Amino acid sequence: FVLNYKRLRYRTTWVEFSDVEATMRSIGAPPSSIRSDGRPIYTLPVIVDPTHNAMKPEIISNTNHIAEYLEAAYPARTVFPEGSRAVQTLFVHYIQEVFAKPLLPIMVPISHHQLQLRRGSPVTHPLGYLSGPQREQAWQAVKDQFDFLAMILDKNAGDGDGTVTMGRDVSYADFALCSVLIWIERMAAHDGWARVRTWNNGRWHRLWERCRDYMDEF
Length: 218
Known about the structure:
By secondary structure, this protein is mainly alpha-helical. Helices cover 52% and strands 6% of the residues. It contains nine helices and four strands. The protein has helices at residues 2-5, 20-27, 63-73, 85-99, 104-119, 132-153, 172-187, 189-196, 199-211; strands spanning 33-34, 40-41, 46-49, 58-61. The strands form two sheets. A two-stranded antiparallel sheet has the order 1-2. Strands 3-4 form a two-stranded antiparallel ribbon. A hairpin with a 5-residue loop joins strand 1 (33-34) and strand 2 (40-41). Helix 4 (85-99) runs parallel beside helix 7 (172-187), helix 7 (172-187) crosses helix 8 and helix 7 packs across helix 9 (199-211). It is globular. The relative contact order is 0.12. The model has no long low-confidence stretch (mean pLDDT 89).
């Protein structure tokens, strides 16, 4: 999102899930986070920026650190409007640690299933897959989070466009939220996105459309 929004040239290198840790270690990428027992966690995305020093490129992991780095190194077309960095950081923490949590029981088994399909592995019924009333209860827990966030964002309606987080212009907070929407849209288009896009009078589909131009991967 941020690379596209800032109109920076880049090239995407795809890494198989099973190869992520080995690949990140081989290029000297720092871990994205650390487990409570001290073991490192390696996740994607990671950026390698040779612009300022081709012999010793900047290697940044963790989406939040990447956004901070790109904002500092390439300040044009800011994703952190003046005075909003602390509030946006808090908002993104809420999205990642609270808002998205009810999605995990639904989306993790689906994502695992999609990985099996992509690899051509024998497809088995996803471990932990919810069905029937359990699945509907899980989606209701997700909707509760969306309803709460919609109520908060509606407070911008008087002095904003009623869609984006910071009033009228898209920002990093919108990209963090839209990443969750894309996860649902790509992994559960019929069962998930078909629901979510209609919730709260179509708010989430409008946000998806506002961010659409910055979603492409090159």
